[in-house]
Write a structure and sequence with these properties.
By secondary structure, the chain is mostly helical. The chain contains 4 helices and no strands.
Length: 103
């Protein structure tokens, strides 16, 4: 199949995923449980996608744990996202550097 066909199929799938909830739920959702459930779905999905990527991105669980620890500490103190990302990357790199030469 050509690349154009792949793009067309993915466009249709993406459109359907976004369109079906609007067609199915025409009225406002009044269930408190269902509304609170839907409120947390994006956070749960983002976490489920991000956490494995964090721990398998460096090839070493130790360096990933150092980077994650730095990110969690800086995020706890409400640092900007760019600061958290750069510091976590630097911590993972430094941990890998020190492990390479001192372990």
């Amino acid at each position: 199949m050509s690349i154009v066909m792949y793009i067309a199929v993915m466009a249709c799938v993406t459109y359907l995923i976004r369109m079906i909830p609007f067609a199915a739920f025409r009225k406002q959702i009044k269930s408190r449980f269902f509304r609170s459930f839907l409120y947390y779905v994006p956070y749960a999905v983002l976490t489920a996608m991000t956490i494995p990527a964090i721990f398998y991105s460096t090839g070493s669980m130790t360096t990933a744990a150092f980077g994650t620890a730095v990110a969690v500490i800086l995020a706890y103190f409400d640092m900007p996202l760019i600061v958290v990302a750069l510091a976590a990357s630097a911590a993972a790199f430094a941990a890998g550097f020190f492990m390479q030469f001192f372990a």
